[in-house]
Specification:
Structural class: alpha+beta
Strand content: 25-35%
Largest sheet: 6 strands, antiparallel, barrel
Radius of gyration: 28 Å
Number of strands: 26
Low-confidence stretches: 24-43, 75-97, 377-382
Oligomer: single chain
Length: 472
Amino acid sequence: MKRVFIGVVAVVVAGALAWAYVPEVRTYFQHGEAGRPPLALEQPGNVVPTMPSLHPVLTRVSGAVVNISVQGTPPGAMNPLLQAPFFRHFFGTPETLPEQKSNSVGSGVIIDAKNGYILTNRHVIADASQIEVTLTDRRELEARLVGADPEMDIAVLKVDAADLTAMPVGDSGKLKTGDFVVALGNPFGLGQTATLGIVSALGRSGLGIEGYEDFIQTDASINPGNSGGALVDLTGSLIGINTAILSRTGGNIGIGFAIPANMAMRAAQQIIEHGAVQRGQIGVGIQDLTPELAEAMRIKAWSGALVSNVMRGSPAERSGLRAGDVISQVNDEAISSGTELRNRIGLMRPGEEVRLQVQRDGKPMDVTLALAARDQVADAGGLGDRFAGMSVTPIPDNHPLAGQTQGLYVQSVAPGSTAARAGISGGDVIVEVDRRPVESLDDLRQAETAASGRPMLVHIVRGSGSLFLAMP
């Protein structure tokens, strides 16, 4: 016991001497190390240093985080008896079950106080007939939808109000694994809540949540209702939009995902300017370059995007790109994977000029091309009645089938059209018509002409399966 007492006294005396005679010790506790906050963020009365607190940060940014309440009428579920075109054709009854009113809650971030722009997730406001925003000062404002991008799950709202607080936007490109972050939002409709965590990983993709994925993974608690809320760093800057969680129960288990602020803001700027995100395309199918592929192809590159196919009439074909080329840089920035290439190109606009560094047969070469609009061949004009009202494009670069098969991606189908009645829907990929491969509008025209006066067999891929449809 005596030894313990003597030890305690020694520690106390040593600390007092260090405080009195070592300036660095006093400087650390009073001002913190260079680039780090002091341990005592607040010292009221200079009596006893207080514990570190995030209260000053939250005070600065909480006013920019809003609660979103949505009232809507989601599309009625398809009546199972009417899923077959036969029943829809002969019974002529409504194709969906009765509509039901729904209410949901989410979160948003004010990014422009002057103009009242709010950034959130698209799935927060999907099918909304009325959107209401509640500020931290309890003001309730009606919001209107400016536009949304379903492929990135981003939406922009606008409110008309004075004295709004916008959140400063940070550079998510500077994030590092292990950085502290705070998630702000409205979990379970409880009201604004803050949770602390770290950046668990960066560049998460392949999750199947969105078309364009480059997620920040964090263990800061994200729960239902947090969607669309802010992920901020310890300076109070927005570095991500909380979007999804990985959970078997629907609750938080420490694996949450946020869209990087750099991606979200580029999409938001396009939505504000154009009402939608206008994406350019190269016109190639791509896959990751693995060490095994690199060795088999006898090339020196160990990372990059491997071109698996080149679409006819695309900017890639006109620039001379070939299957087997490896794209390693875009505008002098390194590309490590096919996903990274899709994300980089997917945020560029049609007509924008892009410089690609390519390796072909182990030799470097530079390619410059102008991006084409993704709907460049989406105009189905000139087709007959069977395909009228259907919008198609080449299979998008970010589609799971890109580079794996040939076909045409169905963007949308007009309700009541022949294609819709036959069972074709948006998201399908038409791979064959009457047992012949389909790659272009010309292929559809030729097939339609050849099948004049008789039913036409259409082979489509939908999700992870495929099916045949008879088009009358």
